[in-house]
Write a structure and sequence with these properties.
about 180 residues; mainly alpha; globular
């Protein structure tokens, strides 16, 4: 499968690119780099969502959905996420922060859908609601359709890190340089 075809595949769109968008929505951009994600985080997270999923095998859609739900629930309980999004935040603050980090101006209905995951609670301490809300932002159509160039650069960095890991020193994937090269 060529690189371009891989980016269009169900496997990438529903696993690796979803992980990418989880991090984008959760943490936004680092100065000079499109997404704060370590290769050591990206690979196992992608494998977690894709575990036992073989497209077109009976039950693959349900396995993928179960994996996504489990991943989202686990992700919002990570210390990094909890530090960034204390449970004392209101649902409005939580939704607005995720959309701001994602670089998306949500429609009124998209914003309301994220906020309503908390059933009008005063706080965002419901883990399942936090997971559903994050997924809504990460799966937002505007976020999905933006960042094609960043995705291509991200793949190039992943391939580069496998061949020349010393060029990805420090664990942070430096995408800005590759974006400039891709222009």
């Amino acid at each position: 499968m060529s690189s371009a075809a891989y980016f269009l595949s169900i496997e990438f769109q529903q696993t690796g690119y979803l992980v990418y968008r989880f991090y984008k929505a959760s943490y936004g951009n680092l100065p000079g780099a499109p997404v704060p994600i370590r290769l050591s985080e990206f690979l196992p997270d992608t494998q977690e969502i894709g575990h036992d999923v073989v497209v077109n095998r009976v039950g693959w859609e349900q396995a993928l959905e179960s994996n996504k739900q489990a991943f989202a629930t686990e992700f919002v309980q990570r210390s990094r996420f909890v530090s960034a999004y204390p449970t004392s935040m209101s649902s409005e603050q939580f939704a607005d922060a995720l959309f701001a980090n994602a670089g998306v101006t949500p429609s009124a209905s998209d914003r309301s859908a994220v906020i309503n995951e908390f059933s009008f609670s005063a706080t965002t301490n419901d883990v399942a609601a936090r997971a559903r809300a994050l997924r809504r932002v990460a799966e937002n159509s505007t976020l999905r359709s933006t960042g094609i160039q960043s995705r291509l650069c991200f793949d190039a960095v992943l391939r580069l890190s496998a061949k020349e890991p010393e060029r990805c020193a420090g664990g942070w994937i430096e995408l800005r340089r590759l974006q400039l090269l891709a222009q």
